[in-house]
Amino acid sequence: MKQLIHTLEGRLEPLPVSVAVELPSGQRVGKSSTQVLLRFRSLAPLAALAAGHIGTLGAAVVEGQVELEGRVRDIMRAASALLQSDPVRGTPSWWSQIMARTRSMALHTLTRDAEQVQFHYDLSDDFYALWLDPRRVYSCAYYREPGMDLAQAQEAKLDHICRKLQLHPGERFLDIGAGWGGLLLWAAEHYGVKAHGITLSRNQHAYVNQLIQQRGLQDRMHIELCDYRELQPDKAFDKIASVGMFEHVGQAHMPEYGDTVCRLLKPGGMALIHGITAGGVNNVAVGAGMGEFIDRYIFPGGELLHVSKVLQALSQSGLEMVDTENLRPHYARTLWAWSDALEAQLPQAERILAAQTDAERGARALRAYRLYLAGCAMGFERGWIALHQMLVTHPDGQIASGPMVGAQSGYPFNREYMYTQGVSCPTSSNPVPPPI
User: Fold this and answer.
1) Would you tell me which of 51, 105, 275, 380 could form a disulfide with 332, CB atoms 3.0–4.6 Å apart?
2) Does residue 162 have an active-site annotation?
């Protein structure tokens, strides 16, 4: 026991915040005045603390083996300092790569993908509404102006996507993984497109259908409970967005994903592929147990790829990348906004989850989401993960003349169009959808 206490003291002393550990016996290790207290109910998780395996330690918190006291921002500062190696560097062995690909193939059947999406997104609409913006946009915001709040930055993101795609009235627009309908509504109401969304979440499907009815958009909006691989439209779409979705595809299925986007997009059309990407070239998850934590408690079956590998899959499908933007710092700020909003409403969150699941499952979910939101904010800050928007075209083989000579698919020669046209943000001309 003396050696254990000595090891713990050595790990706690250099941390950037004051941290104390309370052992199952009640003995406390660390400073008497602390910003963070870890109260251990068993000795087993101490090994994870000593090794800097913070994802495993987080799992022990979710399971009730360790209690945390302190601000989540302080907890994350301590967690990052506990790491003993870079969580995104290193080259996996050939065997581990084969096993990862085999696992990816097995994880992403039509049935399993639906189950995995519903595990996360169908937890509780009321819970998500507590900490998302009023439009329930569950993806990286775009802080076009430093003073924007979360709601304004999410509207700016929706418009940024629509501008990049050069949406025009009457165009057929597809949103793959439409969430709670924020982008569909924005595109239909501000750009006059005929918007079609698909999702695997039953809750989101029902919510968006009610929004469509409430806002009288039956002639311009439609959402379908459908896997992207099974969508068979009458004709290809003019424009496509896929926001926060390819993380669920899996590395083994990225070629199929690229082929599907190409099949659904008409020649000459554009698609905006927006998603979380790995910070390292070879890893499909963040190390130190953090990837395993996300897979177990938050996004089962999720896999991250480096942006270069995503672009490779899209290119091999016949799509041409014409613009890529890294919004990593924007996602760090978005996640801290979500985390702060949840932390400010913990009692209400606990009541919602207990009522819609059960008390024990709700308490575990709340502990998991507190660590997930703050931990991901930390990960984006440090570059362990990133967020890329990739604009691709489906080349039509037509060589333009006049001022666009040499171009294909009508893509402009510069980015100016993304910033000088479209809807003025942050104030929109349409009200936020009412809660349902």
Assistant:
1) 380
2) no
